[in-house]
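Holo prediction. Input below; ligand is adenosine-5'-diphosphate.
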Amino acid sequence: MKKIEAIIKPFKLEDVKNALNQIDIKGLTVSEVRGFGRQKGHKEIYRGAEYEVDFISKVKVEIMVLDEAVDEVISTIQEAAFTGEIGDGKIFILPAEGAIRIRTGERDKDAL
Amino acid sequence: MKKIEAIIKPFKLEDVKNALNQIDIKGLTVSEVRGFGRQKGHKEIYRGAEYEVDFISKVKVEIMVLDEAVDEVISTIQEAAFTGEIGDGKIFILPAEGAIRIRTGERDKDAL
Amino acid sequence: MKKIEAIIKPFKLEDVKNALNQIDIKGLTVSEVRGFGRQKGHKEIYRGAEYEVDFISKVKVEIMVLDEAVDEVISTIQEAAFTGEIGDGKIFILPAEGAIRIRTGERDKDAL
Amino acid sequence: MVNTGDTAFMLISAALVMFMIPGLALFYAGMVRSKNVLDTMMQSFFAIAIVTIIWVLIGYTLAFGPDKWGLIGGLKWFGLNGVGAAPSEYAETIPGLLFMIYQGMFAMITPALITGAFAERMKFSAFVVFTALWSLIVYSPIAHWVWGGGWIGKMGALDFAGGTVVHISSGAAALAAALVIGRRRGYKVEIMHPHNIPMTMLGAGILWFGWFGFNAGSSLGSGSLAGLAFVVTHLSAAAAMIGWVTAEWWKSGKPTALGAASGAVAGLVAATPAAGFIGPISAIGLGFVAGAVCFFAVSLKWRLGYDDSLDVVGVHLVGGTLGALATGLLATKAVNSLGDNGAFFGNPALFGAQAISVVATIAYAFVITVILLKVIDAIMGLRVSGEDEKTGLDLSQHSEAGYALHE
Amino acid sequence: MVNTGDTAFMLISAALVMFMIPGLALFYAGMVRSKNVLDTMMQSFFAIAIVTIIWVLIGYTLAFGPDKWGLIGGLKWFGLNGVGAAPSEYAETIPGLLFMIYQGMFAMITPALITGAFAERMKFSAFVVFTALWSLIVYSPIAHWVWGGGWIGKMGALDFAGGTVVHISSGAAALAAALVIGRRRGYKVEIMHPHNIPMTMLGAGILWFGWFGFNAGSSLGSGSLAGLAFVVTHLSAAAAMIGWVTAEWWKSGKPTALGAASGAVAGLVAATPAAGFIGPISAIGLGFVAGAVCFFAVSLKWRLGYDDSLDVVGVHLVGGTLGALATGLLATKAVNSLGDNGAFFGNPALFGAQAISVVATIAYAFVITVILLKVIDAIMGLRVSGEDEKTGLDLSQHSEAGYALHE
Amino acid sequence: MVNTGDTAFMLISAALVMFMIPGLALFYAGMVRSKNVLDTMMQSFFAIAIVTIIWVLIGYTLAFGPDKWGLIGGLKWFGLNGVGAAPSEYAETIPGLLFMIYQGMFAMITPALITGAFAERMKFSAFVVFTALWSLIVYSPIAHWVWGGGWIGKMGALDFAGGTVVHISSGAAALAAALVIGRRRGYKVEIMHPHNIPMTMLGAGILWFGWFGFNAGSSLGSGSLAGLAFVVTHLSAAAAMIGWVTAEWWKSGKPTALGAASGAVAGLVAATPAAGFIGPISAIGLGFVAGAVCFFAVSLKWRLGYDDSLDVVGVHLVGGTLGALATGLLATKAVNSLGDNGAFFGNPALFGAQAISVVATIAYAFVITVILLKVIDAIMGLRVSGEDEKTGLDLSQHSEAGYALHE
Ligand SMILES: Nc1ncnc2c1ncn2[C@@H]1O[C@H](COP(=O)(O)OP(=O)(O)O)[C@@H](O)[C@H]1O
Ligand SMILES: Nc1ncnc2c1ncn2[C@@H]1O[C@H](COP(=O)(O)OP(=O)(O)O)[C@@H](O)[C@H]1O
Ligand SMILES: Nc1ncnc2c1ncn2[C@@H]1O[C@H](COP(=O)(O)OP(=O)(O)O)[C@@H](O)[C@H]1O
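Structure of the complex:
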């Protein structure tokens, strides 16, 4: 079992969710984050004082998947989140050891 | 050492925190997330236009624990977060390699 | 490859980011969290009713790094986030298996 | 004859009272959890809509039409028939229609005040039915008793701007509602933080501003009496802010912003019956006491166990009662020769009349509200399901979310 | 001669109309995504600034200066030359400067209304140029036609407070703007939730409050006519809230808070041309119909495919047209002897005049707006780049973020 | 004799000035970090409470009581003794109580303005003591000098609505406070973003609206002079918005929403001393210059190194000084025969009087504020601990959080 974490542009969330849905991913968890990376930040101005703000709004998508689904999930996200511009984001793969569905106590494969 | 991540219903957070407290878990970290899963979303209506919104407010609880505590933590969360309805959430178990307390530099077991 | 997660005090974020920058960390992801730990919470009062609130605003910083950079990253964060008071936070180390840059499809080392 | 100065002041006063209702919506909505913010606001907004229609069609004539047995107004002005440019007997220097709509604003805000008691759990449909009926069966009669030529006014009790008519009636109804509908899920277990206190403070600011139209406007014209009512209102609010904050600073160790806002509102409530009848220094005393007393009153709910979500009882019932009784003590013809003297100025009879008016209003409003809610509950259900309550009323009752994900 | 009561009322009315513009800013800003909240607000604020200067320098005299051919005012009052303490011919009991600034507030809010149509995608610089020119070329002439001695007024068409001048003109311009500038990226694909509905409701509350200055103030003095306009305005808004919410409850199964706020605004719009000419019961009917019709009108954009971001067409063009035509039916000298009778009161000619005024205003505002925008587009570009639109206009146009990270 | 029109206008004007204070609370609170939002708002709210009580008991008579040596008012009206329905000598057509409370609103907002300088770090208890004493020792005397029969008024200096009394006094006190209390932790290191700019813009909108009561109301009656002051106020604000935004567009490359809001306030400040004395075209010039100059003035703090958190110095001290001096240039009896001519109209002496009044006010307010703060610091401490400052003042001073977790 793996945990996939994707950091994407916020306006791509609907696309990514729909694409994952089509490959039968039934669950995922999303959160608002701010990213710092190659994509350059922006200037903010408050009463004449200028600030270079490095952080950019991003969305983090977390998905627990079985090992065999990892490649498909990754390529699906990659495609759906792609714009070709700097700051499209990253996909990280982490090992995971188990999952439990609270409602039923089902474990691992059955819990997803 | 493991990292436990639980996605639960927001109104269960107090219960889960208190239950974990009672089994002597001394630290945890919480964040607001939006989940997509079997629990069906809801309709939203803005000026007559209807939208099916798939995302539901959830809370993510993250806890670093020693291997020996994993089972107890899991069953405690499971019990405290349980309502029996779809959308009660998941518990994920991830391997972890270490922890450091910033203030003291203590490591691993001593850092939790 | 490792994933470093640091839970720090919010007002230390700028310092941590700048310090990481100086050791050539080119990307990281930040989110708002609430922590529960040894640092005691605070009292809140609403119309005479007093509540003990255990959760404290923290910031979570997530950084994917190559194995060889782990130690430097950790000590950098430790130094930059340090105030010496309870609640300075934690650094967690998790194993990671890969990273992909969405824009280019580059993998692992090249994706960071 | 219509006087342009009086009319100018009353036009703006009517607008100010109307503006209090969105102010109230904010005041209340800031104190609920974010999942109920829209339902809470919408109850106040929709109270405007419902009561406006009822008022112009029938409520006005029931309240201000020719007196029947001291209890209710006749149907002479049904559908505003005969209400127009000519001044009414109630206010001889402003157009009749203006008097009607000014009074209508009071009729609208009163049921909106009650909504704080059952916030976060009442079905919206039940709220609509309740508000319509309550306005007809509770508000109009009480307004008639006090201002429309009914028995309370005849008895000589004073209520300058609605201590009994508006605040005691809504406060007593709130107590009834909190008891009938029951506590929110998780009451006393979960922490139910106000989700946005700046919103509540803005609401308090708007209420304060609008209250000048409410109280000074109740002199029904521009002049010295309006000036007095304006000053009494402001002083009472300021002193009550200090009273509340001092009490809580002493009791809990901290002066709070929510306390400051709540105290100001308590002082405005207490000033309402008294505004045109007492002097400025009395107003400071009244306000300070009202602030401190209401602070202690709101904590009663924790001991007595009912869940009046946003403290309508502690602020409006208690503050209104205090103000009405204080009027019986502090009123003086020295400031308003058309008023009366209170007990402190040699006329204990006024205090008696005030006490009777308070008791009668509480009893009537409480009993009828209980009956009304029980009937509505039996027919259509008062309360949302447990699942809907947990989800929040914004999604479950309105399919809306107050706030969207940041983008 | 200056009358203190009339002047008092008009001073406050002018202030109230000005306050509507920040109200509008909130009303609109709550409905956009958080990344565009400041740009949306700033467009309304900056419309005040731009139009104020243009109005006092030249706009006022173009609108209210001595009539030339029924089409435009002469330059007599250029730079406010000769406009001072003495009353103008338009309002003989208030200072001339006050009449000028009161009318100026209408001139300011009108282009601010249009901004809802092109929200979330127009370049700020293009907005500035557009607003300045539109005010001169579209607003001033139409105001002259209707109120300044021009052909529409002479024809006998009635517009009490700006149904054609303000709402139809801005609504027609909004349609033009939505068509010329094109849809937002992601329109119909992404969900574009209002980011903060409580903000929109507060905006609606402020608008309602200010609208009393707008409509009752349009009687240009304090008295019975102002009272009537006040009542008609309020009743129409309340009834329209019910109309809209009822329609959506029936259609989508839920009564929404955004619907209540939108309905109220629709009712205020519809009341605008009619306020001083129709009776209270007519106002209820007009409001209810306006609420329901505007509810259905806003959904037209989905079918017709244009992206009028915040429904200026559905609310202001449709609501204003409805109100203007209804005035041709419901007006009656029984409530205002200086008005006229409509078709329902034996004078179908009025309906004809109203219809002509509506059509002329729509045609003129639409055509000139299209031309203006095309020219501006050719010279400096109307629309931000795709990247800037995705980033949001707050960062890309203003280098600001509406909300900071919680600390 | 009391005139209903004048009284109507002054009642509403008093209410409008009161409404400015919640507006100011929002204006300021939007600019602080979210952890300090409630403390910031509460300082403004509590200034109302404290100053109200002090004003009615003693402040009013110190300011407006019978003149003693040109420096202070006598105690004749201590505790409002003798202040009632009868007009005072200051305003012969409105009730004496109304003049008292109208002036009281000015006394309240002035110390509230100062709070922007020490926002995010002052102990609430120290703030309470400071505000009470400042009102007595600084505000009342200066008000007496200018308006109460004191030396500045006698010298012939003009201050229509409080350029010196309100804005220069609070601005000079703000500079003193920023210097004495020292910088916020992390000043110039951390980015201290405004946490909610829409809140600040709403605050600016309310301020603008209320300012009509402030400036036009300062004519103390309804009529042409009020009309002039209204127009001058509005034009100056609009022009200043353009001035500020143009300056920053040119300097930083972007027009900002916060700049628009700030510019408007700067223009309102600058108009305050001048409102009833200059013509409309002068107002546009004054406003434009004030907007641009204040834009550059706020950036001075970065160079000079003091931390005036919310730019009270740059906006109120600089804007007020500019307005007061400009009055010495631009005033003309052509618009107000009871005023005077300025240097541009042949009377350079007025400019001299204005300059003296500015310098005296700055010197007095600055010096006394420094002393006051040093004494308070010595006795009870001015500043919260470093830990409390990091945690935020809402939690540390009030045990409250402005915003709760989304639910
Ligand atoms: N090493 C990293 N660890 C964690 N998050 C990262 C890392 N590098 C980048 N990110 C996240 O990915 C986002 C996109 O990265 P960026 O370098 O801007 O563009 P790109 O993905 O096109 O190379 C960043 O905003 C940040 O949130
Ligand atoms: N594969 C997954 N990866 C990550 N999060 C998931 C996954 N599946 C479900 N979740 C999270 O768990 C929540 C509950 O899941 P859901 O399927 O709705 O109900 P249940 O837990 O009762 O099966 C979801 O809202 C989502 O946040
Ligand atoms: N076991 C844990 N798992 C996850 N997060 C933790 C854990 N323990 C502490 N934390 C996080 O670290 C923060 C700081 O911990 P705390 O015990 O208060 O202070 P310190 O780090 O100085 O020991 C907490 O607020 C919480 O967010």
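Helices of chain B lie at 13-22, 70-81. That is the main takeaway for now.
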